[in-house]
Structures are given as structure tokens and as C-alpha cells.
Design brief:
single chain, alpha/beta, eight-stranded parallel barrel, three-stranded antiparallel beta sheet, 21 helices
């Protein structure tokens, strides 16, 4: 296991002077020279201090850690067989991968075209700047999309009366954009709330004024164990957010700070959210309040906290009879998370999700309510989806993916700009120079949308095309494992490639798989 790159990273725009000679524990150059201008993280911290805590440049990146964990999903392999297909006739002319069913049903009546959900993308600039692609692409693909925390609070046009939001053009736009492009009732738009959102009455507003059916309470995320953060390059907005109750650093009303900002000594304020405090009684009561307000689906998202906190999330979710629980493993995020925290905090994917399966299994065997479960944390491709669903079977219904879909939407948006500017890069230009040429799903989407295709942002087409690839890829893998619908996926579809992975997950080591059956067959 290699150590985290502790003193130099593209995430903090820092580098070592001697990249070939690094002290393993500190990450410092083997020879730290008097006279160096300070390119490494320590050096940069000497003149920019707390600014270097966060990945940069903020607002145009998503971030994931660089730490290599002892065990990850690559330590499992997918098993296949040659007989007894599940969910289809044992006929080679019928058991085609194109006949694999990957639709899912979650919560109270939510139809999903494939087992994916995009978790909370909230008030960060990168989410706002790509919302057209995300909302329309997810709606066309028929997968749920979650509007993350702090959107109303960050909206300068929000109307707030007696501490409660009455109108937010930003939240209204995000909700309605998804709904306007929804196809045949598939998918759902979900509104999340953290401490500040709850204080502002965001869920009450979303349910009563925006007709949102699904809401999500947020306890945390896999990237960090503190509240959400963003950077604010505008003094007036920083002051507005402080007046609305956010923690803003440095104090935007301090005359010395104002003068320093106006002189250009620093460029951005930091807006921080509060850390939530959880109790079983308050949680159960809040879920009931949301039901009474008219919420058809109440979800919970939690992060990579210690095992007891995971068990509490599962138990409280069961007692409150929520509809879906998302458990996000350590390692990455779409917002501004402290870089060292992102690398060194939280329980990683295989360990956390193995605990998740085992804890849920205990309650299920006692006959207690089990919400639909979502795994999140570093999933990007069809093999990851298959492994996640199988590792968590039979309880995991969806896989949460944020950075992958966001990347697809960003690439689609960028290519649309290049097409409009008649400036196609060589790497892409070989496919053509129009939207129809470049995006392979264009004909299919055009047939579906008709004249409306002309209004379709290329960011949305990028996301839709990425999901289409995941859809076909997942069906191919499932057919290879002779599983022709999602309910037949099981932990038996995986083998651990190392004994450590087997010990952590309870998935058999590959050399022990089918051992008894093999012996019985060969001895017969």
C-alpha cells in the first residue's frame, strides 16, 4: 500500500522540487533547500495559509482523494456460469444481453430506468454551472437526481420572511427543469436539506410550493465529516450569507477584513455550514413531520462515519420507516472539501459497504423495516455498478454516482461550445463536426424528442450518452453472469481475489468458490 501524497498534489496546485526523491512519511523533498520559493504544500501554506486546505481552482473542479486503500472494488472479480440462467428461458436465442432487465422500483412508486441515482449536487458553482446538463440528461435517462444542500440560502434572490424561505428562483428553476424533461414518469427530483436548510424551511417550501414528492435529510457525505463549504468572491454576497445565518470567514463586516479584500490581499470568503447533531427521537419526529406535509418519499443520506454511526443510521431509518438510505463511502466529492480530510478521514468503500450489508442483514432477519439502500463512493462504470449491487444484495437497489455523471455533462457542454465555435479538437473531430455526428445517441434522442431536440443542451446529451453506455455495459455483464434481471443479483456473483478482501466482505476467496460442488462433481 502506497502512502497518500501528503505534500504535493494537483488538487492543491502544489508540487515537490525533487519529485523523484520524497521522504515517505512526510511527503517532503528528501533535501529541503534554503532558498526554495515554496512550490510544495508546506511552502504554499507559508504564504497562503488556510487557502491551501482546499482543492483548487474552486468552482471548476470536482475532487477525489489520492489515497490508495488496502482493499478496493478491483479486489473482487465477477463470476460467470454456463447454465441455469435466472430470469429468462435457457434458450440461446432468447437469453440475449439486450433482453436483460435493468429497470428498478424504489420508495413509493418511483420508476427508474437503470439502478442509478445522482446524489446531492447543491450550491457549489460547478453544480450550478452544469445544472442544465445534469437535470435534463438525468430526466431523459430516467434516473433520480438530488438537489443538494444550501441552494435556497445561497440564492441572492430568495425571499426569506421571519427566517423562512418563501420563494427561491434558483431552487424553483432546478426542480422545474428536471420535471419539464421527465419522460413517462421515470426518475424523480429530490430536494436535500442540511441544518441551515432545515432552519430556513426548505423542505416545507419544496413540498408545498414546488410540488416535490421526494425529500432527503442529510447527515453527511463521504468526502468530509463537517458541513458544506463554498468560496465567495463577492463581498456583498458574503455579507448577505452571514446575515442569513451562515458561518462566513473572515468576517465580511469587519472593517479591516473589508479593506484587505478591497486591496486584493485575498480574493474569496469561505462560507461554512454547521455540523448536524442527531438524536433518534428528533429524527423520527422530523420524518413524520415531512410525511404530514405531504412528502411521498423521505430519504436519508449519511457519510463515512464510524461503525456505530452507520448502525445508528440504519436503525433510526428502520424505526422511522424511511423510503431510501444512501451510504456514501470515503474518498471523494463534488464540492469544496478539505484536501487532507478527504484523504485521511472516513471508512473506505469496501469496508463501509460490507458493514452496511451485515448491519442491514441483522435487522432484516428480525423482520424490521428495511429501506431501499443506495451505495455511493467512487462508482463510475458498469462493472462498479454490478459489484456494488452484488456486494449489497439483496438490499442495495441503486448505486449513487455524482462525479462520473458530472464529468459527462461537463464534457458534453464543452464539446457543444467547440461545435458552435467550429473549433473541434482533432481527438473528437474524426467523428464529425455537428451534434448529430459527435454524440452517438443523437438519432435515438432526436426520434424521442422530435423538434425539441434542437433545444437540447449538449451537456444533457453527454450525460444521457454516458448513461446509455452504462446501461448496455451492465446488461452485458449481467448476461455473462446469467442474471437477466436485477432481483437475481447476489453476493454469489462475486469472488474475492485476496484473502484480506474475503475477510472484510464475507465474499469467498476465489480459490474457495464452488469447492464442495466441484469435489462432488469430479468424484461422481
Amino acid at each position: 500500500m502506497s502512502l497518500t501524497k501528503t505534500n504535493a498534489s494537483a488538487a492543491t496546485l502544489s508540487k515537490n522540487r525533487t519529485p523523484g526523491a520524497i521522504q515517505s512519511s512526510s511527503g517532503m523533498c528528501a533535501t529541503c533547500v534554503d532558498g526554495c520559493i515554496g512550490m510544495c504544500e508546506i511552502g504554499k501554506s507559508a504564504y497562503r495559509g488556510h487557502e491551501v486546505i482546499y482543492p483548487q481552482p474552486f468552482g471548476i473542479i470536482t475532487s477525489a482523494n489520492e489515497k490508495e486503500y488496502p482493499v478496493d472494488m478491483s479486489h473482487f472479480t465477477i463470476l460467470g456460469g454456463i447454465e441455469d440462467p435466472k430470469g429468462i428461458a435457457a434458450d440461446s436465442d432468447i437469453a440475449l444481453f439486450s433482453n436483460v432487465k435493468v429497470e428498478q422500483r424504489i420508495g413509493n412508486g418511483i420508476k427508474v430506468r437503470m439502478p442509478l441515482v445522482i446524489p446531492g449536487l447543491g450550491s457549489t458553482a460547478i453544480a450550478k454551472n452544469n445544472w442544465e446538463g445534469l437535470a435534463i440528461g438525468a430526466a431523459l435517462a430516467g434516473i433520480p437526481l438530488t438537489i443538494g444542500e444550501n441552494v435556497c440560502g445561497m440564492d441572492p434572490k430568495s425571499e426569506i420572511v421571519n427566517g423562512k424561505v418563501q420563494h427561491s428562483p434558483e431552487l424553483e428553476w432546478r426542480v422545474n427543469l428536471y420535471k419539464e424533461w421527465q419522460q413517462d414518469g421515470y426518475g424523480a427530483i429530490v430536494v436535500q436539506a442540511n441544518v441551515e436548510d432545515t432552519n430556513l424551511g426548505v423542505h416545507e417550501y419544496a413540498i408545498s410550493k414546488l410540488n416535490v414528492d421526494a425529500v432527503e435529510l442529510k447527515w453527511g457525505q463521504g468526502a468530509k465529516n463537517i458541513g458544506g463549504e463554498v468560496k465567495i468572491p463577492d463581498l456583498k454576497k458574503a455579507q448577505l450569507l452571514k446575515e442569513r445565518g451562515y458561518v462566513v470567514l473572515p468576517d465580511p463586516f469587519d472593517p479591516i477584513v473589508i479593506k484587505s479584500f478591497e486591496n486584493g490581499n485575498f480574493k474569496e470568503f469561505e462560507r461554512h455550514s454547521r455540523v448536524g447533531m442527531v438524536s433518534e427521537e428528533a429524527f423520527v419526529a422530523r420524518v413524520q413531520e415531512l410525511r404530514d406535509l405531504g412528502a411521498k418519499n423521505v430519504f436519508l443520506k449519511t457519510g463515512a462515519y464510524r461503525p456505530l454511526a452507520l448502525a445508528q443510521a440504519i436503525k433510526y431509518a428502520s424505526k422511522a420507516k424511511i423510503d431510501m438510505l444512501t451510504v456514501d463511502a470515503a474518498g471523494g466529492g463534488t464540492g469544496m472539501s478539505p484536501w487532507r480530510m478527504m484523504n485521511e478521514w472516513g471508512i473506505p468503500e469496501v469496508e463501509l459497504h460490507s458493514m452496511l450489508h451485515d448491519y442491514v442483514d441483522i435487522l432484516a432477519k428480525k423482520g424490521e423495516h428495511i429501506p431501499d439502500i443506495v451505495m455511493a463512493g467512487g462508482f463510475t462504470f458498469e462493472d462498479h455498478i454490478f459489484k456494488g449491487l452484488s456486494l449489497g444484495a439483496p438490499y442495495v437497489k441503486l448505486i449513487g454516482m455524482a462525479r462520473g455523471p458530472l464529468a459527462a455533462a461537463m464534457v458534453g457542454k464543452t464539446l457543444g461550445k467547440r461545435i458552435n465555435e467550429n473549433d473541434m479538437p482533432v481527438y473528437v473531430g474524426r467523428f464529425g463536426s455537428s451534434k448529430e455526428d459527435v454524440f452517438v445517441t443523437s438519432a435515438e434522442v432526436k426520434e424521442k424528442l422530435g423538434a425539441r431536440f434542437a433545444d437540447l443542451p449538449t451537456g444533457a446529451l453527454g450525460l444521457y450518452t454516458y448513461v446509455e453506455r452504462l446501461n448496455q455495459g451492465l446488461r452485458q455483464i449481467m448476461a455473462g453472469s446469467r442474471k437477466f434481471s436485477l432481483e437475481h443479483l447476489s453476493r454469489d456473483d462475486l469472488a474475492a481475489l485476496t484473502k484480506e478482501a474475503a475477510e472484510i466482505s464475507g465474499i469467498p476467496w476465489v480459490m474457495d468458490v464452488d469447492k464442495d460442488e466441484v469435489t462432488k462433481l469430479l468424484d461422481s
